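Aim 2 progress update. The chain analyzed this quarter is reproduced below.
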Amino acid sequence: AFSYKVDLDVLGTQNRFQTVDIVLQNITNPERPDLRHIQTRIQRDLKTTEKEAAVQYDFNRPKYYNFYSNGHKNRFDTHRGYRVQLNGIAKSLLPREEWAPVSGAAWMDYQMAVTRHKESEPSSSSVFNQNDMYDPVVNFQSFIDDDENIVDEDL
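Predicted structure tokens:
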């Protein structure tokens, strides 16, 4: 397993992160009011804190992951940004809460985690974490646990 730490800027450092969820909606059939119809609907969900933006992928509910600048739009009146596509992801089989050594590789519990950019958090892990998995040199979980605001911030 491996991890990347990326500073993603869209036309400056004031950026946002949202998911675009595909949800099912049970509606009345307009042509036959006695029947119900299930349709898909797109729902945008702005993530405001680091804990909300820590992705533990739900394989039953696919979604898109967008980083965008709220202050900049393109010629189609859509926010300028990037979509991150998670390909080749795997579900973590290690018990997270009950197994303390996972602290040394806490990044593997998330397929993606969006945090505020900080100079004091230069990497998501360290080669020295292997020396003490119970008390790691770089504890990635602490990047998320401080639960800072991520709206219009450097992500």
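The longest helix spans residues 140-145. The chain is about 5% helix and 30% strand. These observations will guide the mutagenesis experiments scheduled for the next reporting period.
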